[in-house]
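Quick note —
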Amino acid sequence: MKLFFYNKNELTYSKVKLIPFLISIIVIFILTYMYGFLKGREDRIKNLTPHERELILININDSTSNFSDEKMISLMKELNIKFPHIAYAQSLIETGHFKSKIFRENNNLFGMKQARTRVTTAQGTQFNHAYYGSWQESVYDYAFYQCRYLSSIRNEEEYLAYLSRSYAEDPNYISKIRNLIKKEDLRSLFE
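Predicted structure written out below.
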């Protein structure tokens, strides 16, 4: 069997060399497969907000970095966490100043539960809370949470009201946050 390519501009035929032809067929097959795979992935992320899409591209697999509150504050600034002093106060409450079992074993800084309907970096549930491969993944997950549910909030009072309604199990949660912000001057950490 002989194969020929037809060049319609020059109105000529040229013999196809079998090895390069087979290689190009294989490359086309691989590209078609990759396109299908990526298209499926695109369908899974099409409902993300632009900020969530940006965050998903960030490499969050640096689990070699040990936790420090300075590193956490820096990452929160880098991710442009909304009302970071409030989020930081939440982390202090939820982790018992970074000493709780949920933080030490789950790398969970915010007492997050496993997300069911949004993008998440959580790897599963342990101790009835989400667990993460690193503390950084917990901060990214909180950023995803904010993007999904808090993007329309414009001021602190709306933010605290939302947390009171939808996040906190403790009826004194918001007053604890307010007290921590004032007592430890948390606003100054993010200026």
